[in-house]
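Lab notebook page, bench 4
Experiment: in silico fold of construct C2
Operator: M.H.
Input chain length: 162 residues
Purpose: comparison with the prior construct
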Amino acid sequence: MALYEHVFLARQDLSQQQVDALVEHYKGIITAAGGSVGRVENWGLKSLTYRINKNRKAYYTLMDITAPSAAVKEVERQQGLSEDVLRFMTVKVEAHEEGVSAMMQKREERSERGDRGFGDRPSRGFGDRDRGDRGPRSFGDRDGGGDRGPRRPREGVEGGAE
């Protein structure tokens, strides 16, 4: 049997008990087809990047699934028909992660992993840029001169040439 990570987003106006009932329903489908569900993480109510079906927030849930592909397809089919599920995604993995997912780790634990390679760079604000030998910018004459020459009046416009 294959290993999968399955994430689905449930509507914001559901209660946490209703989301748990959805999880139990989908667990039942998988176990009936001969699979099993390992870890289930409720990531809680989170803001969406963009609105989905007039929802600005959604309940995120992760499920680690060990099941035949037919069971996963049935869960996806039922989630596609459900009005309570906004989006879902299933990814086939080689092995399930041990411990909690990255979404459940506290921010302090994430910061212990390092500064993601940006620590080598010096801090660059807007005022400390090295412009080399380039002098200050010149925008030419502000009275209509400059590179294009003086402006000509437009024809047919009040104040223009007649």
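Observations: The radius of gyration is 29 Å. The chain has a mean pLDDT of 81.
Next step: discuss at group meeting.
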